[in-house]
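Typical record was shown:
=====
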Amino acid sequence: MPRGSKASYTDKQKRQAEHIVESEKKQGKSKKSAERIGWATVNKQTGGGLKKKTSN
């Protein structure tokens, strides 16, 4: 998986990050900075992109 890929994040984590990004943009942060803060916050809160692996 390439660096920066969000494929391993759950839908809930993606929604959380998007909510944080929008909040940061409202506070006057640039889009790039807001995205960095949003994903860093989600990673800290949830431990990163950890989709449950299904056992076969």
Observations:
- The longest helix spans residues 11-26.
